Amino acid sequence: MLKTYLVLAIIGVLLLSASAAGAQSPQQTGSSDSHEHDQSEAHSRDAIKAVLKSYELALNASDVQGVVKLYTDDAVLLPPNAPSGVGIDAVRATYAGIFQTIHINLTFEIAEVKVVSPEWAFLRSTSNGTVTILANGAQILSSNHELFVLHKTQGGWKLARYSFSSVLPAA
């Protein structure tokens, strides 16, 4: 329950920030500043999309280090029906455990990218594909919706928070 409130609080703060930024009229900034802002935001969106593609490739390759390098040091992973992974070591351990039990083959589709400040953004996506249970080779369909909160650091855009849940009916 606390996790749900935390995610909702983060989303609320991001939406409020986005609303405040959107409320600024174009007349308040010069056209040159506005053009630079648009270019900067477009560049950020492209970089964020690249992070998701890198995540997809590393996830499908069961590459723990490839996944972990995309996260901030204070990252929080919020998987369904499992404890939160708080901090980079917990995120690393979570993915190591996942990759020891299943093989993932997912394709992500971006639903929206919102850059809410020069350092913060969120990405909403869906993913579809299969998961193979390594113990018995069984393949099951996987279809999820995801919310990523990204933070721009000196190393570029990184995943700061990640939550997902299945959209398939419970078995």
- Please list the strands of the largest sheet in the order they lie side by side: 2-1-6-5-4-3
Helix content: 40-55%
- State the CATH class: Alpha Beta
Distance between the termini: 23 Å
Q: Would you give the CATH topology?
A: Nuclear Transport Factor 2, Chain: A
DSSP E strands, number? 6
* SSE succession: HHHEEHEEEE
Low-confidence stretches: 1-29
Which short descriptors sum up this protein?
171 residues; alpha+beta; Nuclear Transport Factor 2, Chain: A; 6-stranded mixed beta sheet; disordered N terminus
Give a written overview of the molecule.
The protein has helices at 2-23, 31-60, 64-68, 88-101, and strands at residues 71-78, 85-86, 102-115, 120-133, 139-153, 156-166. Mean pLDDT is 85; it is low at 1-29. The protein has a six-stranded mixed sheet with strand order 2-1-6-5-4-3, sandwiched between helices. By secondary structure, it is α+β, with helices and mostly antiparallel strands. The radius of gyration is 17 Å and the shape is globular. It is built from four helices and six strands, in the order αααββαββββ. It has one domain: Roll (Nuclear Transport Factor 2, Chain: A).
Quick overview of this protein structure:
By secondary structure, this protein is α+β, with helices and mostly antiparallel strands. It is built from 4 helices and 6 strands, in the order H-H-H-E-E-H-E-E-E-E.
Secondary structure: elements and pairs:
Layout: H1 2-23, H2 31-60, H3 64-68, E1 71-78, E2 85-86, H4 88-101, E3 102-115, E4 120-133, E5 139-153, E6 156-166
Parallel strand pairs: 1-6
Antiparallel strand pairs: 1-2, 3-4, 4-5, 5-6
